[in-house]
Amino acid sequence: MNAPFQIADHREAMPAWPPVAAVVTASYAPDLERCRLLCETMDRHVAGMAHHYVLVEGRDVPLFRQLETATRTIVDERDILPSWLHVFDDPLSRFRRRIWLSLRTQPLRGWHVQQLRRIAIAAQVREDVLVYCDSDVAFLKPTDLSRFSRNGRTRLFRRDDALLRDGHDEHRIWSANAGRVLGLAATPSTHDYITTLIAWNRATVVAMCRQIETVTGRDWVAAIGRDRRFSECMLYGRYVDDVLGGAGHFHGAEELCRVHWQGKPLSDDEFGVFVGAMGADQVAIGMQSFIGTDLARIRKLVLAG
Predict the structure, then answer these.
(1) pLDDT digits (tens, 9 = 90+) for 110-146
(2) Which end of the chain is more exposed for a tag (fewer CB within 10 A), N or C?
């Protein structure tokens, strides 16, 4: 591994109680302005946050430095991932995309490595609870990160028995592969743990990585990356429920972020309808960047409130 990632000294003064929470966002250059909007809306609406870690590829660090503040750190993936994982421009995409190569994993794309970053950061920070938020999210309502903790336990998002329903073939594969590296039965869990705006217990993530290394005899990055069909949310959910028996966690099925996953770009009126349909528990929206809704319009509509 590279030299340990150094976080500011604010970690040393953290109280043992109540749990201290940080937000973690994995991003990349094309999402810079979306990430900027996320940061602005977090600063406006989110309470109870000790720090915000934005995890990016090494070449994107200078670009993202403009978002850094006393409570927001830009983290170079080279400081948290193994030095044997190398990134290149991919000639098969006419050098438009990036690919991460090593002798220990399958060739990995950006979305794979973003997941690995989200896991790896836990070993380098000291906050008790890590709240994961994508860079295409914007907060519209006030929220306090204390909602992710209850009597010393961390909230685990779980959609009960969702994998028994049609349309979850890929999720079942991710669940089965999570079980394999965790030493569980090859059959998948029936539960789905995937959504945005979720929380993990930092110490539990570190223990999960140790479990993977014990079971596989490999570095946890190498073990996970041997098959490109993986989900960090499935890994954590199955570790908590199927290895720990739910210890240290409580379940929540409410999705706190309303996401426009697919379809056409939204008009102003359609955006208003979308926001108006937010549930009582939902405090943020996610607008998938590949859909193409104009970011300037999103910014204007979000910040108008």
Answers:
(1) 999 999 999 999 999 999 999 999 999 999 999 999 9
(2) C
- DSSP-assigned beta bridge partners for residue 22: 51, 130
Whole-model pTM above 0.85?
yes
Domain definitions of the chain by residue range: 16-256
CB neighbour class for 177 (10 Å; exposed up to 12, middle 13-18, buried from 19): buried
How far is 297 from 305, CA to CA, in rounded Å?
13
CATH for 16-256, options being 3.30.70.2740, 1.10.3720.10, 3.10.20.740, 3.90.550.10: 3.90.550.10
Q: How many C-beta neighbours within 10 Å does residue 192 have?
A: 25
**Contacts of residue 3, Cβ cutoff 8 Å, sequence gap at least 6:** 79
